[in-house]
Amino acid sequence: MSAFTPTDQQKDAINYKGNMVITACPGSGKTTVIKEKIRQITPELLNHKGIIAITFTRKASLELKNRCKLNAHDTKQSFFGTIDSFCYKELILPFLSRVWDGSPNNCQVVKRLQTPYKKYLADVYEKSPSLEDLNSDKGFKRLFDDEILWMSSFAAIALHILNESSAAQRYIKAKYSHIFIDEYQDTSKAQHQLFLKLFELGLIATAVGDIQQSIFEFRGGSPELLKQLSDNEDNFKHFEITINHRSHPSIINYASRLLNPDFQLLEYEGDARVHQLELDGNLKNVGEQISVWVTELLKSGDIDTPSEVAILTRKIDSIKLLSTGLEVNHRVYVDSPLDELGTACADLYSDLLAFSLGTIPTAQDLIDKQFQFINSKKQHIANFRTHLLNLKNEQNIDEFINKCRNLALNLQIDDTHDSDNVLKQILEHEEQLKLFKPIDKNEVQVMTLHKCKGLEFKVVFHLDLEDWVFPFKRVIDSDWDNPIYPNLIQEKNLHYVGITRAENDCVLIQAGLRRNSFGEFKVSKPSCFLTLPQLEGLYQQ
User: Which of 22, 66, 287, 390 could cross-link to 326 by cystine, CB 3.0-4.6 Å?
Assistant: First the structure.
């Protein structure tokens, strides 16, 4: 691994000691900046102290943790994980009983509320509930009284604990010196309030994100919160990291002009690496043409393996039609039937399948994931591990399901019926089973734009760029002459994320035929994203 040489922008952010906001564009090395800051801080800490590093996913957390610990670097008592994991382990488990009578150790943690529990709450809370919701809705306390902890409410509960428990405040101040939160543009109101509370307690606070990559408002993420921090000059110093080290300059130019018509274009030699193409036929025909191009890319040496190519769509239905025309090996990343079921048992079965097929590499990795919200004795975990290892080489479908059922019972999951049936369906269908297998370098990667966040590929084919498809248009009161774009900013951000996944080439494709809401194929017009005047001359046709 080559030595890291920071740019001036990166160096300024790494060396600053106070509270700060870092806004970083795609490919700018923000994870490296966070890593360097943590490795700079931790040697100065007492052995009983550490930092808090919050990331959006467990995968990102593990990557950051490993990079911080490289060459046996001692991170002391630092916490690396998701916001939910931090709230649960550091605040809810040890301190919730001090503010709500009861024992969180006896509670079941659920991702989704099932009947009758979802009826306890006064609202549906499609987005993460805030502290104000927690205080005004007695249903949250009623859930706890019935030994249910809903994961979406963790940030609000953790904030409530810090507001009400001086012991919790003393614990956090004694154990941690700094708080880092990555992907701050996707932070909810309650998570933002929790971040500010930790700042008020004296932790040195760093928020890292990019408003232009905000694509999860439907989950409760609010880019406005990152902007508020950036504008809070009295408490936070704002650093910008604007150099994209990933993509060809022509791709940077196109993506940047998409959002900012006044962006100062970068100079480069040769042709633009962004292509706007209209292809005859529907997405099946597009899949056939992309298959030809992938074969040519391999022959020419422009790519070493098919896995360096990504095909990105706005809609899952588009993937289904596209796949019927793909004549190269490919991997589709969509939610599995177990994901759609959404129960604790279904989540366990997903992990057990991934472990048995090698995607989750070790028993300890699976145990860490499954037991992160379970307070269990070592003997119980050892028993689970023994049963887990017995699962690894099981070939008989019925026996495999039976062993999965026993592991669920080991975790006190009693209702396995629906998950058993879905698991059997997956095991009997190779295409569904493929969702749980490790990435194969001989497969083109096919996914929605939301799933491509944080990834990078040498070549990106970006589909669904037809009018009405992307960005989404809606007709109000049958006024077909004046349709509206209900989520244009989020959709433009999503388009930006897709373009900036590309390192060497980005191919923007409009299919000649689009499928409408009635399933009929109609002659398409280009997406408004393809006709923006500020993009003229920045692409090849």
Answer: 287
Coil, strand or helix: which one is 338?
Answer: helix
Phi then psi for 411, rounded to 5 degrees?
A: -95, 15
Q: Which residues make beta-bridge pairs with 206?
A: 20, 180
Task: Give the pLDDT confidence of 319-334 residue by residue, as tens digits.
Answer: 999 999 999 999 999 8
Reported as type and span, the H/E element at residue 312 is strand 309-313
Coil/strand/helix, residue 75: coil
Give the Cα separation of 313 and 321 in Å (integer): 11
**Tens-digit pLDDT profile for residues 141-184:** 999 999 999 999 999 999 999 999 999 999 999 999 999 999 99
CB 332 within 8 A of CB 435: yes
- Is 111 in contact with 342 (CB distance < 8 Å)? yes
Does the pTM surpass 0.85? The reply is yes
**Residue 477's CB: how many other CB atoms inside 10 A?**
5
Q: With beta carbons less than 8 A apart as the criterion, state whether 171 and 79 touch.
A: no
Residue 177: its H or E element: strand 176-181
Cβ(473)–Cβ(516) under 8 Å?
Answer: no
Catalogue the long-range contacts made by 406-412 (C-beta closer than 8 Å, 24 or more residues apart): 407/348, 407/352, 408/345, 408/348, 408/349, 410/380, 410/383, 410/384, 411/344, 411/348, 411/370, 411/374, 411/384, 412/108
Q: What is the dihedral of CA 289, 294, 299, 302, to 10 degrees?
A: 130
Query: 478 with 489: CB under 8 angstroms?
Result: no
Tokens representing 256 are 């940047």
Maximal CA-CA distance, the chain: 68
Q: In what order do the strands lie in the sheet with 330-333?
A: 274-279, 502-511, 457-462, 309-313, 444-448, 330-333
Residue 47, burial from CB neighbour count under 10 angstroms (0-12, 13-18, 19+): exposed
Q: How many helices (H) and strands (E) does the chain have?
A: 22, 16
Residues counted in the chain: 541
Give the tens place of pLDDT for each residue, 419-451. 999 999 999 998 899 899 998 999 999 999 999
Query: How much of the chain is helix, strand and coil, in % rounded to 5?
Result: 50, 15, 35
**Collapsing DSSP states into helix, strand and coil, what is residue 191?**
helix
Q: Are the CB atoms for 252 and 266 separated by under 8 Å? A: yes
